[in-house]
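User:
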Amino acid sequence: MWLVKRVQIDEVQRGILYLGGQFQRVLEPGTHWIWSLTKSIQVVVWWTNVEYEVTEEFHVLDFLTRKYPEQTEKHLQVLTTTSDQIGYVFMDGVIKDVMGPGDRRVVWRDVLDVRLEVQSIEDSLVPDSVMPWIWEQAKANNKWLFEKNVTFAEIGDGQCGLLKKNGEVQRVLSPGRYAYWRFLDSVTIKVIDQRLRQVDVAGQEILTQDKVTLRINVTGTYQVKDPVAASTQVVDYEKFIYSEIQFALRGSVGTKTLEEILADKSVLNSMIRDRVHDRVAGYGIELSSVGVKDIILPGEMKILLNRVVEAEKAAEANLVRRREETAATRSLANTAKMMENNPMLMRLKELEALEKVTERIDNITVFGGLDGVMKQLLPKS
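Assistant: Predicted structure:
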């Protein structure tokens, strides 16, 4: 008994015909009548206008192209890369996939414009045409790419990137987005901030030269000028500059007495800067400034120091008061000497005194005129 099956294949479809489970041919768009006497008829319809991606169905097509190359060559395009190549699959001019070394893909012909661009794995930099796809995959957290095969970094303004291949520095990267393949080499990108940065060295308890324990806080600012030297000559340049300021602070305070430190903190700042600046400059770091923020005394020392300050201020006040008293006495002596030799001046001084007295009296009864008042209030000696 003959088995007959009618199959309609649309323009954006292709069909795979199986008779009795065995591949026969690829069905192109149109109407097909399939006849068979004894074998079962099966047609698998494939959509060819969908976006390109590797799925389980890919392995079916890959098997057919390998086993039946002559029957499938007209309809299926095979994309391959050698062991020393990376492949970029473009469909209608848009990047859709990346093929690693020794990889293989299968796509339908005559539907989408499929183009494969290959790159030697020795040139590990991802080209600009592929970077938008890499960026999209980064946002989608593509583990195949970023855990195994790609090193990706975004370097902002005021930063630079240190590119290393197999542990060796290759170049310094300026701001931008970069991606490097890791198929052949171990590739890392270390982002380094070259803006002015601050380091705080806080809570340092240090003995002065006269054995007084101080707690001091210091702040410094620095900038990485040579990222290669700063990253390759020291393990951690941030900890390094912290330690250098800490050691310089301890060494400087130990050579000064408490009185010298409190008298002028700028001397301490200069000593710390002189010790640290040249030291860190050899590692590509510029120390811009350093200064003592706080000097904290022990509790009992605060009390003693306050007493000393109070005593000094009291002594200064007594000295000023005595100077004023001496000046006033000297002025009175000079006035008395002048009145002794000038009766008229004496009389004017008496009238001035009389005026002050009368200001405090409500009513005055005068007998004998002004002379009588003067004789009674200011009798002559």
